[in-house]
Each structure stands twice: as structure tokens, then as C-alpha cells.
């Protein structure tokens, strides 16, 4: 299950969705908005997506993860819009028969999501300035 | 043909538009589109070098011919998560 | 925070407890009761602990984990008594500034818990027989 | 001295008791206790070889002298999680 949403992420519901009787391990990852980026103070982030392609790449990430580990069920949700410090921007929940698999599959899924999925964040700094975050050398 | 290109994140801020349009010859490739964009919107030139282009909802190779009326998007390096 | 409990584990409360503004990554592990062990059908597990030493070893595991990763907060809860299929037997939640640390710290903590903490489970098989699980060669 | 030993899991099932007591000479070690347990409760002998002993709430080395009135526990291989 993959989803983009402007609403707060209900990670408990997400976790319940992936629990399965044959899966002894469930791993949930939450990405939350940090108050510091390096040594600069952030007050909020704005997340934006290219939605159709983002959902497609999230679905591909799910398929890739299932091809590599015996996933019982998995769910990935990314939030969009304005997020305050401490809010959950992304949640990935995975169940597998054994715990090592569940850890590896969840880690792989969030790593791929961050690498592939067309979503961008804008830092809203404490001094009132803003910066879109585009990893790599500055343009 | 006119090719409309959706812009996101800093690319939108650099142009002040969430979509721009450039003229392309028929059978133009993604590489041609990239050059046309940099020429028509010099502010985008730096970021464009680091950005991907998507055509009809898939990341596009430079050699792909841009189909007429394609949905095209300029995708700066991603930072979700 | 470490705890042994006979009540169902509220893993959402546990996760909320470990979230911190300077921690961008939270990883939660849930161990749940599987319906199969190898190819045998289980109907329930009974968990028993030597409580004082179990809590001490869980606290040591927390301290070891904090010594190795920049943990913001962490929580480990193990349930005791009779558990049905699908119920959560153990939960470990960890927050760290970055996600790689949170995954590694959570994985380390559950691995150590399973290795060190004096807790035992008894399989209640579908055929009515029972077996305490003591890894290693049979006695 | 009499040394009382708490039993858990299969060790309890093998003896039908959650605590047993064995006579030990003063200054007996954990190794001595192990031998005395195996001798007094032969049903435990096999599992005992694979079990740890805890004294006063810590895993005990074989050479540790068992203090008088210590809290002692026989801990079969663990299977929590």
C-alpha cells in the first residue's frame, strides 16, 4: 500500500495493516521533521511532490522490496504540505516472517524512496529565509 | 511543436512559474528539450544540469524523442523522506 | 525506558515516547506471535521471565545501545503470560538524529535482548502438546 | 548450608517445582552447586549443562563462591522476543 497525503500520518493504523499471523517481525520507520539541519534552526518544512510519478516510484519500490524479501505486507506513506517540527513526514511499515528480513526490507524501502521518489522539501529557517533542498552541488 | 514543462521546487521559484513552454522541432529529443529550456530560461540552466526530465510519467533518457502533447516535467534532485 | 508487562503492549504510546525534535529517524520493532514454527502449528505462546534479572539485562542492553549510537530516546517492553497468534510479544522503539543510526540501534537492541534477557517461551501446539523453547541441542 | 535455587521453564517442568534446595559445603562454588544439583535432581542434568546460573541477580562464573542466603536461579537457554 502506498499513499501521498496532506493529512497527519496515522502510523499505528499503518502498522496494524501490515501485521500478519505468519510474520513474526514488523519494522516501522518514521521520518520526522528535525529542529536542526546541520547547525541551522528550522521552524517548518514544506513538502511537494510530482504526484503521479511519485506514486508510481513508490509502487516500484514496494515491488522491488517484495522481490528481495519475503514481505507479508508493507505500507509506505509520504506526507505533503507544511510540517512543523516533530511531525512525521514519511512512514514505512513492513512485516516479514523473521526480524532480520523485516529490518532489511524496511531499510531498503526507505532508502530507495529517498533516492528515487520525486518529492522535495523546502527548509523554512528561523531567520525567515527559505531554501529548497536539492542534494548535490549547489546550482 | 510547443512543449509544456512542469516545474517543481527551486525550478519553480527560479522562473516564478509552475509550467513553462518551449518551441521544439518535430522529433526533438530530451537532450534537445534540455538545451531549449536552458536557452529560453537561463535562470534554470544551473539546476537543469542536475535535474532529470520525465516524459509521460517516467524518467526519460536523453535520446528519447519527445512525443507530441507529452506530459513533461523537470525534476530537480529529490529530497523527500 | 524498559518494562515487563502482562498487559497488551501499546506500541503507539511507546513510539510517541521516543520521538524527539532533534531526531529525524524513529524505528520501531514489533515481535509478534507466529502461527507456524517451522512447519508446526502454534495456537498460543506462554512467556515467562526471571523478572529482576530480565529488567537488569534490558537496562544493560539500553545502556550498551546508547553507548554505540546517538540515541535520543529508546523504549523496550516485553510481554509475559499467555499470548495468542498475532499478539505483540516485544516492542523496541528508538529515535536517533539520522535513520541509519535508528535502524542499527533498534536492530542491536532486539538482537541483544533475545540473546541475553532471561525470558522463555512455551509453544502450545495445535495438537495440545507443549514445549519450552531452549535454543541449542535438546536436553 | 542449604542453597535454594529458583527454576524456570523446562527446568521447572522437569522437577515439578519452581524452587529446589541442595546442601552445599561452606565456600562452595557455582561449579560445586552445579554438580550438587545434577546429583540431587538427575532429571535436570541434561538441561543443566546448557544452562546459566545466576547468583544475587547476575550471571555467575563457575568459580564464584556462593554466598550464604544468596538468591540463586537456574537459567535455561533463553527464548524471549
Explain briefly what this protein structure is.
The complex is a heterotetramer, with two copies of chain A (139 residues) and two copies of chain B (81 residues). Chain A has 139 residues and is an alpha+beta fold. Chain A is 32% helix and 39% strand.
Q: Roughly how many Å is the radius of gyration of chain A?
A: 16 Å
Q: What string gives the helices and strands of chain A in order?
A: EHEEEHEEEHEE
The total of helices of chain A stands at: 3
CATH class (first level) name of chain B? Alpha Beta
> Architecture of chain A, according to CATH?
Alpha-Beta Complex
The largest sheet of chain A is: 5 strands, antiparallel
**Which two chains share the most extensive interface?**
A-C, 31 and 31 residues
Which range best describes the helical content of chain A: under 10%, 10-25%, 25-40%, 40-55%, 55-70% or over 70%? 25-40%
Regions with little confidence, pLDDT below 50 for 5+ residues of chain A = none
